[in-house]
Amino acid sequence: MAQVVLDPKLSKGLEYLKSGKRIDYACKLINQSAKNGATPGKSFFAIGEILRKGIVLDNKPGLEPKVEESRAFYDQAMTEFLKTSPDAMDYLEMGDYFNYGLGTEPINKVRALEYYDLATNCGDSTYSPIASQKAAAIRRELESGSADVAPVLDKSSNASVVEPPVTCEESSDEPLKETVAENDKVDVEDSIVPPTASTVDTVTNNENVLFADISQIKSSVDGDLLLLKGIRLLDSPASTEADLQDGITLINSAEADGSLRASVLLGYLFEGNTSVLSKDYDESKRHYEIAIGKGSAVAEYRLGLLYLNKETSFYSQERAHELIISSARHGYSYALNYLGDSFRIRVSNPKNLELAYRYYGLAGERGLGLAYHKMAEIDASRQEFELAKVHEKYAFYHGYDKEVDEQDPLFFSLHI
Fold first, then answer.
1. Of 31, 76, 163, 169, which sits most exposed with the smallest number of CB within 10 A?
2. Euclidean distance between CA atoms 415 and 7, whole angstroms
3. Within its chain, how far is the Cα of 41 from the centroid?
4. In whole numbers, what is the pLDDT of the chain averaged over residues?
5. How many helices (H) and strands (E) does the chain have?
6. By the 8 A CB rule, do 356 and 340 touch?
7. Coil, helix or strand for 388?
């Protein structure tokens, strides 16, 4: 069972918030715990909660709710959770992310149910019962519908097929250790230094009781808006050659504004997989490295594959494996699936098939139906046909179409 760990500064900050005393100091502690504490995912999630709900002091608003501004911090929390081995509290908050649509991802009850089930399976006395209640409520909605949610599963499925095969006890990573001593002191007069480029700005302190400094977030959002305009030009069948060039210009501007998604797309286009840009592996590598510098697990995986391409000037199996393994450690579903494939082909050692099965399970948990399908194939080879049927259902509910051997990309959109 993964033990629930709370960064000491986050813990103290939450205690101050609960008591209603020293709110500015409390938020500064939480801010610092997000930047360099032991549990940044929990800290970013707490900041999202502060901004979404606001703060009330003596029945007067101390901080007005800022729902839209809170979304970036919830997104960052999800990114941090996927870099570690989550505990029951993490899984519960990940479930809330999808259940209530806290971040920029749409509400997804099936994904929420997966994380609530994982939190329940952790057996934590505090968070598991809460997750269990929320999971039961979602199952009722999925089976019979509600005022907001129509049924998406029939009764024969019993809605239990969305439960992933991985639990806290099965995680291969060590539980997150505390890195901040309990008696660490913080100077409340210190200015808040923005975190690195791979994270968003956290809550800052001012005379109006802590409003969010979102300049970095705004720049990235503006970049993503430019990216969307560029993609529309590239995808439109009515676009002329000049329109396509305008699209590329917009995407380059989006990258300059801080959009790591734009960097990933440019890296992909320079691989020469489309007719939009001429093949240039060095340029592809450069853009992927920009995205990696901003924390992109997708770029790590794509660049890892590029290092395995013998047509490049930088071919290196060692560097490729480092990048792909790093992407997998950050939870990217296709990187985990790749590792599963790598072990599966080495069937001479039975242990390799077990490792492959495990990696497929981790990829499936993160929304890749294709990985569940591969688990089903292994089940069938072991004559475990009932289990194979269950995993094929998992695959279907996570966007994999067995008939055409195609994965719907919208089912693993957590990673960037």
1. 169
2. 25
3. 11
4. 79
5. 17, 4
6. yes
7. helix
Instruction: Quickly list H helices, 169-259.
Output: 215-235, 241-256
Inter-residue contact 79 to 104 (CB < 8 Å): no
- 227 touches 250 (CB < 8 A): yes
Please answer whether residues 288 and 306 qualify as being in contact, where contact means their C-beta atoms are separated by less than 8 angstroms.
Answer: yes
Choose among 43, 85, 151: nearest CA to 331: 85
Q: What's CA 74's distance to the chain center, in Å?
A: 10
The CA-atom distances, in angstroms, between 69 and each of 6, 142, 199, 255, 279 are: 24, 30, 15, 21, 39
How many CB atoms neighbour CB 272 within 10 A? 15
* CA proximity to 266, closest of 252, 253, 278: 252
Distances (CA, A) of 67 to 44, 70, 88, 409: 14, 5, 25, 28
3-state secondary structure of 174: coil
Per-residue DSSP letters for 372-401?
HHHHHHHHHHTT-HHHHHHHHHHHHHTTEE
**Please, which residues have CB within 8 angstroms of residue 361's CB and are 6 or more apart in sequence?**
164, 165, 166, 170, 371, 375
28, 199 Cβ separation under 8 angstroms: no
CA distance 78 to 412: 13
Instruction: Check if the beta carbon of residue 380 is closer than 8 Å to that of residue 357.
Output: no
Query: The pTM is what?
Result: 0.50
CA dist 391 and 384 (Å) reads 11
* pLDDT tens digit sequence for 32-69: 999 889 999 999 999 999 888 887 665 555 677 888 88
- Residue pair 261/224 in contact (Cβ under 8 Å)? The answer is yes
Q: What is the dihedral of CA 94, 99, 101, 107, to 10 degrees?
A: 120
